[in-house]
Amino acid sequence: MPKTVISPAGSSAPIAPFVPGTLADGVVYVSGTLPFDRDNNVVHVGDAAAQTRHVLETIKRVIETAGGTMDDVTFNSIFITSWDNYAAVNAVYADYFPGEKPARFCIQCGLVKPDALVEIASVAHIAK
Predict the structure, then answer these.
(1) Of 52, 68, 100, 106, which is the most exposed, with the fewest CB atoms less than 10 Å away?
(2) Beta carbons within 10 angstroms of residue 80's beta carbon
(3) What is the largest CA-CA distance in the chain?
(4) Which pairing describes strands 3-6 and 73-80: parallel, antiparallel, or unpaired?
(5) What is the pTM of this model?
(6) What is the pLDDT of residue 128?
(7) Cα distance between residue 42 and residue 4, in whole Å
(8) Distance CA 2, CA 57 (A)
(9) What are phi and psi of 4, to 5 degrees?
(10) pLDDT the model gives residue 20
């Protein structure tokens, strides 16, 4: 099965050996996305809601570059550093998925940079 790397214009160089997204057989797999600027610095330090919005905007760019929309997202993996941020993450998340929600899970864990409060990976089915 052929696959296509999805890297929106202006994407930063990954900090590890991965790409922002991969399209294979009508499915977009979006790598774990952190609240990074173009230089891989954490943005909105201390603000889980703003970091979540930044992460979801980045995911949206990957999915749209592949030809899909956020309505095509079927699954999200959410990683947070503290349950204290769960409500803020969910409030922003609901803005991006106002209708039928994708399946998901959420776990508390450490992330690759200490100032990052949230990371999300997504799967979207864009085949028509």
Answers:
(1) 100
(2) 23
(3) 42
(4) unpaired
(5) 0.95
(6) 65
(7) 28
(8) 27
(9) -125, 130
(10) 96
Q: Rounded to whole angstroms, how far apart are CA atoms 86 and 43?
A: 18
Q: Which residue ranges of the chain lie beneath pLDDT 70?
A: 128
List phi, psi (to 5°) of 76: -130, 140
CB burial class (10 A; 0-12, 13-18, 19+) of residue 58? buried
Phi and psi at residue 120, to the nearest 5°: -135, 135
**DSSP collapsed to 3 states, the chain:** CCEEEECCCCCCCCCCCCCCEEEECCEEEEEEECCECCCCCECCCCCHHHHHHHHHHHHHHHHHHCCCCHHHEEEEEEEECCHHHHHHHHHHHHHHCCCCCCEEEEEECCCCCCCCCEEEEEEEECCC
Q: What is the pLDDT of residue 10?
A: 84
Tell me if 117 sits within 8 A of 48, measured CB to CB: yes
Q: pLDDT by residue (tens digit) across 32-42? A: 999 999 999 99
Calpha distance 67→92 (Å, rounded):
23
